[in-house]
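tokens incoming
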């Protein structure tokens, strides 16, 4: 990877993506081959699995990011004592060597953020949505999304030189994912991301690496539509590969026919036959292109065709636990309409879906499913929703009129044919359970679907296949999902739960995204003058503003460097054994050092503000 690269690593489940990133991160060793890294470069690695002491407080976890800096500070102090001892002994050679080591150690300590550690930690705390009260809380009190944010914050506090992130958006709500996207887009470090979030990849990546069948393919893509461009380029490559293979088969067939013709007609020109055979043998073989992964090719039917009229009516719905989730909520869902429920973690999305589906009771209000409308529920946790101990076939038949043969046929069309139908549900992976759930939905022929995170545990190919099934469905859908690609394709309306209130947004998911993005500031009113400024004058003013900003930043950097050098000088004076013969001088040095460190803290804050 090069500086500035933002690589999205994709591939089907089981292709080895997580194994590859663990090797790249140095967590696992490869069976063969070598891995080269830039000298003294530091890696920031975020794994899928939670690690570390879950009883540790947030402060302890974030402070542990400074272990290297604390070790560097200890080395600086050790060299100061050694420098003092060398000066006392009069060993000039030793003094020169230690002074050189001290300069290098001090430079490393300062470069890695030797001052302002507490300020950095509090700044990161705010950026990731935590406050002072959270510092004393143990990790196991936080939600899955909060623990992911803690791991990200800790990793970034280490100030690594490049990043490897394995499914960083898992358990994050849309708002936090959006923040992470903006951060990575602006961050200059090379970053490798494993993700099934296609919207996330679209926004941050400028390269896509595809790992499939033990082969890694690279795609240069434009940021903003990275994943979409990769899909287009992949289709083009597949078409070219197929055409090349077909051309090879045609040419191979032609050359074989020529050789056969010469032999059939009893040609005595054996030299010509041998020449043609050699030409045939020299033909560069072209391997048959890989066959695409079989996708779900089924249709999800409603019990009746979508017509005008209500599917679902909600009036005065209210629910609260420790705090209000929503109050007085009222909306309708028409037959054939698609409604997405979005909001931050803890806003009550799944609770609302459970109430709408009749799986939970509201504190007040009512939910009415229109007469004759049959509903079905697609659970977020399929392991809990599927009947334990039953086979896949039995799960499909449960509560439906389908026969054993029909259930097997449905499972087969979803890639779970043969003996898979007789396996207990506990034996299937998360993605396979999703397919069993989909077969159940199809068997019930519902007019209204309640979907709770339907793409969880699915790789990208399976997500796209499920989207195709849902896109062709004629009934109404109410869905809770963090999968913005899915929402962008399906949602017609968005119900946004936030801060105990609910906002209904027409125009689909794109309209919701636009509403969430801060509007650009209004331009100042134009002054009416006899002679408006020309384009060249405006460009000149813009250039001057940029030059002023650059000068201010350069001045701030020089001030930081000056104060840093002054601090180093005072610390060297402290290292002089003769200084301690004069208590007044020592007291003066302490005062100077305290003043310099305060000034340096202010200078760092100004410099960081100009950088931002």
């Amino acid at each position: 990877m090069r500086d500035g690269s933002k690589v999205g690593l994709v591939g089907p489940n089981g292709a080895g993506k997580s194994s590859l990133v663990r090797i790249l991160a140095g967590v696992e060793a490869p069976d063969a081959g070598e891995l080269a890294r830039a000298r003294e470069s530091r890696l920031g690695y975020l794994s899928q699995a939670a690690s570390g002491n879950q009883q540790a407080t947030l402060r302890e976890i974030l402070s542990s990011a400074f272990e290297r800096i604390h070790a560097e500070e200890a080395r600086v102090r050790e060299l100061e004592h050694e420098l003092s001892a060398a000066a006392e002994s009069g060993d000039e050679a030793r003094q020169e060597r230690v002074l050189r080591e001290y300069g290098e150690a001090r430079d490393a300590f300062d470069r890695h953020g030797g001052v302002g550690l507490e300020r950095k930690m509090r700044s990161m705390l705010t950026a990731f949505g935590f406050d002072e009260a959270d510092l004393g809380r143990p990790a196991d009190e936080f939600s899955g999304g909060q623990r992911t944010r803690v791991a990200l914050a800790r990793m970034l506090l280490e100030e690594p030189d490049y990043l490897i992130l394995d499914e960083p958006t898992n358990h994050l709500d849309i708002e936090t994912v959006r923040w992470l996207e903006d951060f990575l887009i602006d961050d200059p470090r090379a970053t490798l991301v494993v993700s099934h979030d296609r919207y996330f990849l679209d926004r941050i990546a400028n390269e896509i690496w595809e790992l499939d069948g033990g082969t890694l393919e690279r795609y240069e893509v434009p940021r903003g539509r990275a994943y979409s461009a990769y899909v287009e380029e992949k289709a083009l490559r597949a078409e070219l590969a197929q055409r090349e293979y077909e051309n090879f088969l045609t040419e191979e067939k032609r050359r074989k026919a020529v050789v056969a013709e010469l032999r059939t007609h009893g040609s005595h020109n054996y030299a010509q036959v041998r020449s043609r055979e050699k030409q045939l043998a020299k033909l560069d073989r072209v391997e048959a292109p890989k066959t695409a992964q079989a996708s779900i090719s089924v249709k999800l039917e409603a019990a009746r065709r979508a017509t005008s009229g209500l599917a679902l009516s909600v009036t005065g719905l209210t629910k609260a636990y420790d705090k209000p989730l929503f109050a007085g909520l009222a909306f309708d869902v028409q037959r054939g309409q698609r409604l997405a429920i979005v909001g931050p973690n803890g806003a009550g999305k799944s609770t609302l879906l459970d109430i709408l589906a009749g799986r939970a009771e509201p504190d007040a209000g009512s939910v009415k499913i229109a007469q004759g409308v049959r509903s079905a529920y697609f659970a977020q946790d399929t392991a809990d929703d599927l009947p334990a101990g039953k086979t896949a076939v039995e799960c499909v038949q449960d509560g439906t009129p389908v026969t054993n043969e029909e259930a097997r046929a449905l499972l087969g069309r979803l890639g779970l044919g043969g003996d898979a139908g007789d396996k207990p549900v506990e034996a299937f992976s998360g993605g396979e359970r999703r397919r069993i759930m989909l077969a159940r939905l199809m068997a019930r022929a519902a007019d209204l679907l309640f979907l709770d995170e339907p793409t969880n545990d699915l790789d990208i190919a399976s997500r796209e296949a499920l989207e195709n099934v849902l896109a062709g469905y004629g009934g109404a859908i109410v869905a809770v999902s963090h999968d913005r690609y899915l929402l962008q394709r399906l949602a017609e309306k968005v119900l946004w739960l936030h801060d105990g209130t609910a906002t209904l947004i027409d125009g689909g998911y794109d309209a919701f995204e636009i509403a969430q993005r801060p509007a650009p500031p209004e331009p100042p009113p134009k002054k009416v003058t006899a002679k408006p400024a020309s384009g060249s004058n405006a460009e000149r003013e813009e250039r001057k503003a940029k030059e002023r900003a650059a000068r201010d930043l350069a001045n701030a950097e020089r001030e930081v460097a000056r104060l840093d050098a002054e601090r180093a000088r005072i610390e060297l004076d402290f290292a002089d054994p003769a200084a301690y013969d004069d208590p007044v001088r020592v007291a003066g040095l302490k005062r100077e050092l305290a003043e310099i460190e305060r000034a340096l803290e202010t200078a760092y804050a100004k410099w960081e503000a100009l950088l931002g």
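note: Confidence is low (pLDDT under 50) at residues 527-535.
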